[in-house]
C-alpha cells in the first residue's frame, strides 16, 4: 500500500510554516507517485533537512579537505540549515583520533590502509598546526555559501 502523508514543515530561510507531501511507503506493484519537490510558498526555498554531524560523513569528506575545500564547504551547506549548524561540524573534523578509530571498526583492509594513510597525513599537518586553519577556512567558506543561499531566497521573488 502506498502511503503519502502531509507533514508540517518550517522553512529554514523565512521560517514560514507550510505543509508538504512526503512518501512514507509505497507498493512495489504500483508506479511511484509523482510528487513535486516541496518548496516554501513564501520565499520558494526548496525543502531541506538538516544532517547531524557524523564521523562517517567526515570520513567521506576527508580526502577532499586539502584537494578541494570548496567541495567540502558545499557539502556542509547541504547538510546544515544555519551557520550555527555548520559550526557543529568543526569539532568532528578536528577529532582525527576518533575518525581513525571509526575507520578501524568500519573499513575493509584495503579501505583501512588508504584511510589510515590519509589520516596520518592529516595528523602530520595537524602537528604542524596547518590542519585547524584549513578546517576553519572550510567552515568560513561554508558560512559564506550559506549566506549566498539565504540571499538568493530572501531577495524579492520575481514570477
Essential attributes:
mainly alpha, 2 domains, 55% helix
Helix proportion range? 55-70%
Number of strands: 2
**What is the chain-wise order of helices and strands?**
EEHHHHHHH
Strand content: 5-15%
Count of domains: 2
Rg, Cα atoms, Å: 19 Å
Give the helix/strand class. mainly alpha
Low-confidence stretches: none
Distance between the termini: 38 Å
**How is the biggest beta sheet arranged?**
2 strands, antiparallel
Q: Please give the order of strands in the largest beta sheet.
A: 1-2
Question: Mean pLDDT, rounded to whole units?
Answer: 87
Instruction: Please report the number of helical segments.
Output: 7
Query: Based on CA inertia axes, which overall geometry fits?
Result: flat
Folded structure, characterized:
- The radius of gyration is 19 Å and the shape is flat.
- The protein contains 7 helices and 2 strands, in the order E-E-H-H-H-H-H-H-H.
- The protein has 2 domains: 1-49, no CATH class; 55-154, no CATH class.
- Strands 1-2 form a two-stranded antiparallel sheet.
- Helix 1 packs across helix 5 (96-106), helix 2 crosses helix 7 and helix 5 (96-106) runs antiparallel to helix 6.
- A hairpin with a 6-residue loop joins strand 1 and strand 2.
- The mean pLDDT is 87.
- By secondary structure, it is mainly alpha-helical.
- The two termini are 38 Å apart.
Amino acid at each position: 500500500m502506498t502511503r503519502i502523508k502531509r507533514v508540517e514543515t518550517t522553512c529554514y530561510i523565512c521560517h514560514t510554516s507550510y505543509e508538504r507531501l512526503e512518501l512514507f511507503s509505497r507498493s512495489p506493484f504500483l508506479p511511484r507517485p509523482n510528487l513535486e519537490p516541496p518548496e516554501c510558498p513564501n520565499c520558494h526555498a526548496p525543502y531541506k533537512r538538516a544532517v547531524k554531524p557524523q564521523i562517517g560523513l567526515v570520513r567521506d569528506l576527508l580526502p577532499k579537505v586539502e584537494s578541494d575545500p570548496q567541495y567540502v564547504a558545499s557539502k556542509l551547506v547541504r547538510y546544515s540549515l544555519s551557520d550555527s549548524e555548520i559550526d557543529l561540524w568543526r569539532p568532528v573534523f578536528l577529532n582525527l583520533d576518533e575518525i581513525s578509530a571509526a575507520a578501524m571498526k568500519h573499513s575493509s583492509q584495503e579501505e583501512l590502509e588508504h584511510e589510515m594513510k590519509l589520516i596520518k597525513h592529516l595528523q602530520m599537518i595537524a602537528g604542524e598546526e596547518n590542519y585547524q586553519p584549513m578546517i576553519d577556512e572550510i567552515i568560513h567558506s561554508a558560512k559564506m555559501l550559506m549566506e549566498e543561499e539565504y540571499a538568493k531566497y530572501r531577495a524579492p521573488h520575481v514570477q
